[in-house]
Amino acid sequence: MHSLPKLKIISVRGAGVDGLDVVAFRKRNVRIAAIPKVTAEPTADFAFVLMLATARKLSEAVTASKERLTIYDSAYFNLIGRNITGATIGILGMGNIGYCIAKRAMGFNMKILYHNRTRRSQLDEERVDAEYCETLEELLKQVDFLVIAVPLTTETNKLIGQKELAFMKPTSILINIGRGSVVDTDDLVDALQNGTISAAGLDVTEPEPLPKGHPLLQMQNVIITPHCATATMECIEEMSQQAVQNLKSGLSGGVINIEL
Questions:
Q1: What's 16's DSSP letter?
Q2: Which listed residue (227, 234, 237, 238) is catalytic?
Q3: pLDDT tens for each residue of 185-219
Q4: Which pTM value belongs to this model?
Q5: What is residue 87's predicted lDDT score, i.e. its pLDDT?
Q6: Is 227 a catalytic residue?
Q7: Catalytic residue status for 179
Q8: Which listed residue (82, 104, 119, 208) is catalytic?
Q9: Distance between CA atoms of residues 128 and 217, nearest Å
């Protein structure tokens, strides 16, 4: 920071700013811009990619197909998964991404619960038929799918650990498209190994990437992707354009799309 005395603006090509010392930059009057709204739709799409893949054991099914498994083999029954349609989804973090997830959940006729630092308006809830849970414990005890969509802050760091995972049903599935550090990795490993929860779909991990040989990489009931929820041509193009526009506006003293 001290090596850049003329720094005026930082434009993040994405939604998260957890890698920046926002308070320190503000003290130096450095403007910080992000573009969270652009990432919401593709990230919500990807949450359902992970939900479907884990619930229907897609990774295992692909492997079985390569091994020429047929419906007449006894191992075929290992591929029996769970429905998403009609299941209960719990959204942890009902911001832009969380709300987009709720809209998609309506298409699967899911019961939609959510927990958020600030409750959404009654109109927002009615539009997606979502029910607010006052406490995280209340949410966790009911869900078939827990989708984590909160940003990483001091309050959300390791928000989901052994205690919280123990509240969940043994048939429940954890999906993380937020930040890896929101979940205690060691506690998640224990929960998956001990049957506390049934599976996990992770687009983010802590650390990222996981080291070779990490237990999560060895589990058949875990699908891990390399932080690629926003990796679509449309999203990348729009993020790049808005990031450049934020830079131009910031340098000229203009209005920034999203200023933190």
A1: -
A2: 227
A3: 999 999 999 999 999 999 999 999 999 999 999 99
A4: 0.91
A5: 98
A6: yes
A7: yes
A8: 208
A9: 35
